[in-house]
Amino acid sequence: MAAIEAAAPSGADTVAGGTRGAGGRRGAPGAGNRRARSARRGSEEHEAGERDAIDDGSGAGVTGTDRHARGRGTGSGRAKRDRRAGTRGRARRDTEDSERPADEDVDAAPEPLADPEATARAICLRLLTGRARTRAQLADALRRREVPDEVAEYVLGRFTDVGLIDDTAFADAWVSTRHTGKGLARRALAQELRRRGVDAVVVDEAVAQLEPEQELETARALVARRLPGTRGLDRDKRIRRLAGMLARKGYGEGLAVRVVREALDHEAEADESDDPAETPWRAWDGPA
C-alpha cells in the first residue's frame, strides 16, 4: 500500500499544472497546442496573401499588406487630385467675380435717387466736359441711371436753353471734322449723325454743306494716296480694291469707279512717257 502511494503523483504536483519531467522540470499545459495554433495562423496568413496577390491582378509576390498599402496610396492620390481641382475651381470663380463689373449685380435693386434733378445735372455736366454730345445721347445716359423721364426732360430742356446742348452745332462740327480728318462722304456722315440721335432735318442741313465738287476732290485725293500701294496687281483687282475703299467711306459706286479709272489711266500715261509729271490730284494729307 505504501508502495502504491509513493508511486502516485502528489496533489501538489498536479495543482502545479502538470507532471514533472525527468529532470524535475514541469511541462506547461497546452504549450504544444499554442505552438500549433500559431503555426496554423501563419500558414493561413501566407495563403491569404497569395490569394490577394492573385485577385489584385498585379502578379505574384504582392501580399495583402502590400495591396492594402497600395490602396491607401491610390486613395491619397485621388484625394490630392480632388483638392487641386477644387482649388482651381475656386480660383476661377474668384477671378470671374473680380472681373465682373460692379454694376452687374442683377439681384441688387437700384437705390432711389435722393435728388433726381441734381443727379441729372451732374451726369450731363460730366458727359459734356469731355466732348460735345447730342440731346439723344444725354437722354440715354439719364435713362440708364433711371432718372425719371419728366426730370430728364426738364434738365435737358434747361441745358438746351442755355446752349449747353446744341444738336445743330454738333452736326456741323461733326461733318467738318470727319470729312477733313477721315475723308468721309455725305452718306457716311449722315449715317453717323443719325446713329447719335440727331434729327433728320438737322442731318440733311449739315451734310448739305459739302458741295459735290468738294466731295469729288476728296475722293481723288484718297485714291492718289492709296494708288502706289496697289502696284503689281492687275487692273481689275486695283479697281475693286480702290473703289471698295471709297465705298466704305460713303462714296457712291459710280463716282468711286470713275475716280479710280481716271487715276489708273493717268498713271499708265505717266509710265509710258517716263515723264515724272506731278499728278493733277493733290495727295491726301489727312488720316484715312
UniProtKB/TrEMBL annotation:
Residues 1-115, 266-288 are annotated as: Disordered. Residues 120-158 form the RecX first three-helical domain. Residues 213-255 form the RecX third three-helical domain. Residues 166-206 form the RecX second three-helical domain. GO terms for biological process: regulation of DNA repair. GO terms for cellular component: cytoplasm. Residues 78-91 have a biased composition (Basic residues). It is found in: Cytoplasm. Residues 41-54, 92-103 have a biased composition (Basic and acidic residues). This is Regulatory protein RecX. It comes from Embleya hyalina.
